Amino acid sequence: MKRLLENLKGLWLKSIRKASKRQRFVYATLLIVGANSLLTLLPFQVAIYLVPLLLVMVYAATYMALLEEIEQIEWVVLFILPVYFSVSMFFFYYLLPDRLFAKVPYFLALSVGTYAVLLSENIFNVGVEKSLPLYRAAFSVANFLTLVVFFLMYTVLLSFRLHFLFNAFFGALISWPLFFHGIWMSSPKAVLEERIYKFATVLTILLSFAVLVLNFMPIKTSIFALYNVAVAYVLLGITQEIIQDTVFRERIREYLIVFSLMTVLVLLTAGWG
Known about the structure:
This protein has 273 residues and is an all-alpha fold. The chain is built from eleven helices and no strands. Helix 8 runs antiparallel to helix 9. The chain is globular.
């Protein structure tokens, strides 16, 4: 049996390597979107137990897309955003209205987002110089999708209406891998730098504190999630500037302006009365 599995694995890898990289991205995207689509046909009470299968499928499909030159910490960090994006979209699906006009854009966003994630992770994997436009494009796309995942995951988490301590706890579990990936891609290396996971831990604690404070404010779930995204954007953005040694006063001012505007929005939309 073991020999049979090894032979099947060898044949699979051989056939995959014959395909071009772009073809592998298309195949991987189709597999991930297909798996996600099949799960969403089931009631949430049933589909939630099959999420581990979705995780395995996304990891395998991402491996198929990247395939070469995956080393050391990359076996973990390169797969974080693809897995998070697919799973967050899966959970968010059940919050959508049961109408066709809502479902079509959902699957379109899932397909485009999945393909974009795989392309970005491939660029980080092959070690493109950070000064090149290709890396900067991948960095911007991955940053945007990271913030999208933050919004989706916090919207889903808050929809369960848990105790505020559970919101903070599960929020921390959700946030740490995203921060870890977001900081790592500022300096993508196969060997893990100690400062990467230390920064990720500090940012997770700060965001969890923001979640705790917001639980005591009379605001809507969407505003709550959006403000968490703004906090994550500021924390992650400043940390990325530190990692890349590009901390300038103008950049810090931009982050603070975004944070201030979102804070004003939260205060204005809160139902104090």
